[in-house]
Design goal:
heterodimer; A: 476 residues; mainly alpha; MetI-like fold; two-stranded antiparallel sheet; 24 helices; 73% helix; flat; B: 299 residues; 2 domains; 2 strands
C-alpha cells in the first residue's frame, strides 16, 4: 500500500521561474477581478450596468443604439484596457510555455484562462447597450458564473505556478519517433473527432446558420448568439436545473448508492453479489426507449400505472399521474438507476483488489464490519471515488437522452430542462420551428468549456503530477 | 458474570444477524424498482395488454398469453440491423482495444516530449462528449464522405463512419484505463528484453500484451456493450434502414407503431437485451477487473 503515499516528484522552481510565474499571474488576476466585480460595482454606483465604463454620452449616441457591438467597442477608448490585459496574458503565457518556464499543463490552464477571459470581456462590451436597458437578472447570473469560473482558474494557476516538476531529460530522436509511432493512430482519431469538431463548434457558434437560411449565405454574427443565450429569460432556470440534476443524481445515485452497493455486494457471498450486480446492470444495457417505456408504466394513471396499482391494493384513494406530481424525483431516479452501475463496478473491483490479508488481520484483531469499512476500505477507495466523481459529473452534465424521452423538459415550461437538453433542442430538434445550428452551438460550446474547466479542477484534486510519474526506462 | 456472557452472546448474535441479513435486506429494497420494472417488461412481451403488473386479454380478464409481440422476428430488416449493431460492437472492441493499448503503453512506459501535456489532454477530453459535438462531427463525416475511396466506407451514413466516431469518443476512457493497467506491470521483464536488443514494438506485442489480457478483456466487454446499445450517434449519423442499428430500428419501430403495441416495443427491447445478458454472464469476472490497480493511483 506504499503507493497510497505517492513520492513527491515535484521540486521547488528556481527563483527566475518563480518570478516569471508571478508576473504571469498578475495580469490574469487583474482581469479576473475586473470581470468579477465591475458589473456589480457599476450596478450599485449607477443603477445600471457598465454605463460608467462606456460613458453615458456614448450610450446615447446613434452608433451605439443602432450599431453592432464592434462599433460600441470602438466608440469607447477606455474599453480597450481590459481586453488588452487579456491579450497580454495570452502572449505572456505563450512565451512562457514556449520557453519552458511552465509545464505543458500550466500552459494549458493559462491559455484557456486567457481565451475565455477575452471572449467574455468582449461579450461584456457587445452587450453593454442591452445591459444598460435591462440589467436583468439573467445577465447578472451569467456574469456570476463567469466570475466564479475565473476565480477558480486563478486559484488553480496560482497554486500550480509555485511547483515545477523536475526537468525532463531531452529524449533521443529515435525514442521520440518510436513513442509517436505508438501514439499516432489515437492522435489521428482525437484530431479528427475531438479537436476539429470543437473548433467547428466554436466557429458555428459565431454564425447565424440555421435551417431557415441554409440555402442562403449565412453570416458571422460575432457574439450575438452568446448575448442571446445569457439574456434568455429562462437562462437562470436552466442553469439551476442543471446544477440540481447533476448534484442530486451524483450524490444520491452515481456515487452514493454506487458506493453502498459495492460495499454490500462484496460483503455478501460471491454468487449472490454477482446476481445483484447483474441486476443493477440491466438498466445500463437496456435500450433507452424501452427503459423509459418501463418507467412511464410506473407512473401512469389507473388502470395502467404500476405505482397506482400498488396504492390501490393497499386501499389508497389518491392515484395521480406521478410524473407530473414529482417530475424531479423521477428524472433523478431514472438517470440514477442507470448511473449507479458504473460506480458500482469500479468500486467493487477496487474493493476486490484490496489484499485479503489486510482484511483477515483486521478481523482477527476483532474489528467489526463497520470499523473495517471506515478504517480500511474507504481510505483505500480514495482514488476510485475521485475518478468516478469526475467521470460521472462530466457524463451527467452532457447527458439528456433519458430526460428527453421521459419528460422532454416538462411538465410545463422548462421544469426539468437542463443545459444539454436546451442545446440539443435549439440545434437539432425542430423546437421553435427551425434548427438553429449556430445558436445551439453556442450553448454546446459553453458547456464544453464548463466541462473542460471541471476536468481541469479535478485534475488538480487528483494531484495530477503524482499520477504521471516519469517512466522508469528512459534510455532506448 | 452469567448475565455478562449472555449479554455478549446476544450482542454477538445481533451483530451476526446485522452482518449477514441486513445487506440482503438493503440490496433487495434498493433493487425493487428494477425487479418490478423488468417483471413488467417480461409479462408485457407475452401478453395482449397489461394493467399494472397484471396481464389482461382483450375482454379484460386475467390471462391473454400471446406470442404476437415477437412477430417482428419475421421482418428481414431486424436481422440487417442486428448485423449492423454486431459489426459496430465488434469494431469498437477491436478499434478501441488496439488504439488504446498502443497509446496507453506509450503514455505509461515511454518518456517523450509532450507526454504530460497529452495525459492532461486525455482527461480534459472526457469533457468533450458526443452529445455536445454532434453538429460538428456531422460536418466532419460529410467532409469524409466526399473523399474518394475512404468516403464510401467511413463517411456519413455508413456503418464504418458510425463505428469510427464511437471508437474515437470512447478513446479517452479506454486510454486512461489501459494506462492504469500498464502502470501496474513490473519493469523487470521489459527492461531485460530491451537490454537484449528487442524493439519497443516487439516488447509491447510479445511481453506486455499477454500480461494485461485481463485488462483488455474488461475493456472489450465494456466497449461491446457500448457499441451494441448506443443510440444517439447511430441515429444522428445514419439515414435509412440499410445502415440502421438495433437501437435505431427500435426507435423507428416505436415511432411507427400505435400506442397499443408498446408490448411489441418491449419485446424488441428484450431481443436486444438477451445477447448482452448472455455475454455479460460469461465475462463478469473479467469486467470486475476493470479497475486494474485497486488501491493504486493509476486510475
Amino acid at each position: 500500500m506504499s503507493s497510497t503515499t505517492p513520492s513527491m516528484t515535484a521540486v521547488l522552481p528556481s527563483k527566475k521561474t518563480r518570478l516569471s510565474g508571478h508576473i504571469l499571474a498578475i495580469p490574469g488576476a487583474v482581469v479576473a477581478l475586473i470581470s468579477f466585480f465591475l458589473p456589480w460595482l457599476d450596478y450599485v454606483a449607477n443603477g445600471t450596468v457598465f454605463l460608467s465604463l462606456t460613458g453615458r454620452e456614448a450610450a446615447s449616441s446613434p452608433a451605439i443604439t443602432t450599431g453592432s457591438g464592434a462599433e460600441l467597442f470602438r466608440a469607447t477608448p477606455t474599453a480597450y484596457l481590459v481586453p488588452l490585459l487579456g491579450l497580454v496574458v495570452l502572449a505572456l503565457t505563450a512565451l512562457a510555455f514556449w520557453r519552458g518556464y511552465v509545464t505543458e499543463w500550466d500552459g494549458f490552464a493559462l491559455i484557456s484562462l486567457g481565451i475565455v477571459t477575452l471572449i467574455f470581456v468582449w461579450l461584456q462590451f457587445t452587450n453593454a447597450q442591452e445591459l444598460a436597458d435591462k440589467a436583468n437578472t439573467a445577465v447578472q447570473s451569467g456574469y456570476g458564473l463567469i466570475g466564479v469560473y475565473l476565480a477558480l482558474l486563478a486559484t488553480i494557476i496560482g497554486g500550480s505556478l509555485h511547483v515545477r516538476t523536475a526537468t525532463e531529460r531531452k529524449p533521443s530522436l529515435r525514442g521520440l519517433l518510436s513513442a509517436w509511432g505508438f501514439m499516432s493512430p489515437g492522435m489521428l482519431l482525437i484530431l479528427v473527432f475531438f479537436i476539429i469538431p470543437v473548433i467547428i463548434t466554436l466557429v458555428l457558434s459565431l454564425t447565424d446558420l440555421a435551417s431557415s437560411n441554409f440555402s442562403e449565405p449565412w453570416h458571422f454574427v460575432g457574439l450575438d448568439n452568446y448575448k442571446r443565450m445569457f439574456s434568455d429569460t429562462f437562462f437562470p432556470k436552466i442553469l439551476g436545473n442543471t446544477f440540481r440534476y447533476v448534484i442530486l443524481t451524483l450524490g444520491f445515485f452515481n456515487v452514493g448508492l454506487a458506493l453502498v452497493l459495492a460495499l454490500l455486494t462484496t460483503h455478501i457471498s460471491r454468487r449472490a453479489g454477482f446476481i445483484f450486480r447483474i441486476l443493477w446492470l440491466l438498466p445500463r444495457i437496456t435500450p433507452s426507449v424501452v427503459y423509459i417505456v418501463m418507467w412511464r408504466r410506473f407512473v401512469q394513471v389507473p388502470p395502467h400505472g404500476i405505482i397506482n396499482q400498488f396504492i390501490g391494493w393497499f386501499g389508497g384513494e389518491y392515484q395521480p399521474y406521478w410524473l407530473n406530481e414529482a417530475p424531479w424525483l423521477f428524472v433523478v431516479m431514472v438517470n440514477g438507476f442507470v448511473g449507479a452501475s458504473f460506480g458500482m463496478i469500479i468500486f467493487s473491483s477496487a474493493i476486490e483488489a484490496i489484499p485479503k490479508d489486510v482484511m483477515t488481520a483486521a478481523k482477527v484483531d476483532g474489528a467489526s464490519a463497520l470499523q473495517i469499512i471506515r478504517d480500511i476500505t474507504l481510505p483505500l477507495l480514495k482514488w476510485p471515488l475521485l475518478f468516478v466523481t469526475t467521470y460521472q459529473t462530466l457524463s451527467l452534465l452532457v447527458s439528456f437522452e433519458y430526460i428527453l424521452l421521459l419528460t422532454g423538459g416538462g411538465p410545463g415550461l422548462y421544469t426539468t430542462e437542463v443545459w444539454s437538453l436546451t442545446a440539443y433542442n435549439r440545434a437539432l430538434a425542430t423546437y421553435f420551428g427551425s434548427n438553429q445550428w449556430g445558436y445551439g452551438a453556442a450553448w454546446m460550446f459553453v458547456l464544453v468549456v464548463i466541462g473542460a474547466t471541471l476536468a481541469t479542477i479535478y485534475l488538480r484534486v487528483f494531484r495530477f503530477d503524482d499520477l504521471v510519474a516519469e517512466p522508469k526506462i528512459d534510455v532506448l | 458474570m452469567t448475565t455478562g456472557t449472555i449479554e455478549t452472546g446476544r450482542k454477538a448474535g445481533l451483530q451476526r444477524f446485522l452482518g449477514q441479513t441486513l445487506p440482503y435486506i438493503l440490496l433487495i429494497i434498493t433493487i425493487l424498482p428494477i425487479i418490478i420494472g423488468y417483471a413488467w417488461i417480461l409479462i408485457a412481451t407475452f401478453s395482449v395488454r397489461t394493467e399494472g403488473l397484471v396481464p389482461k386479454d382483450a375482454n379484460g380478464n386475467i390471462g391473454g398469453f400471446t406470442l404476437q409481440n415477437w412477430s417482428f422476428l419475421n421482418d428481414p430488416m431486424i436481422w440487417r440491423a442486428t448485423l449492423n449493431s454486431f459489426t459496430i460492437a465488434i469494431g469498437m472492441v477491436i478499434g478501441v482495444g488496439v488504439v488504446s493499448t498502443l497509446m496507453g503503453y506509450a503514455l505509461s512506459r515511454m518518456n517523450f516530449a509532450g507526454r504530460k501535456g497529452l495525459l492532461g489532454m486525455i482527461i480534459v477530453l472526457q469533457a468533450f462528449r458526443a452529445e455536445m459535438l454532434l453538429i460538428a462531427i456531422f460536418q466532419v463525416l460529410v467532409f469524409i464522405a466526399g473523399i474518394p475511396l475512404i468516403g464510401k466506407s467511413f463517411g456519413f451514413n455508413t456503418v464504418g463512419g458510425v463505428a469510427f466516431v464511437m471508437i474515437a469518443l470512447q478513446l479517452p476512457l479506454g486510454v486512461w484505463l489501459m494506462k492504469g493497467f500498464f502502470d501496474n506491470i513490473s519493469w523487470d521483464m521489459e527492461r531485460a528484453a530491451l537490454i537484449d536488443g528487442a524493439s519497443r514494438f516487439r516488447v509491447w506485442w510479445e511481453i506486455i500484451i499477454p500480461l494485461i489480457k485481463p485488462g483488455i478483456a474488461a475493456l472489450a466487454i465494456f466497449n461491446f456493450i457500448q457499441g451494441w446499445s448506443n443510440y444517439l450517434i447511430a441515429a444522428t449519423f445514419t439515414i435509412g434502414t440499410k445502415v440502421s442499428t438495433l437501437p435505431v430500428f427500435l426507435n423507428q419501430f416505436s415511432g411507427d407503431t400505435s400506442l397499443a403495441s408498446w408490448n411489441s416495443v418491449a419485446a424488441l427491447g428484450m431481443f436486444q437485451l438477451i445477447p448482452v445478458m448472455i455475454f455479460f454472464i460469461f465475462t463478469q469476472e473479467a469486467l470486475l477487473s476493470i479497475y486494474g490497480g485497486g488501491a493504486k493511483g493509476g486510475v
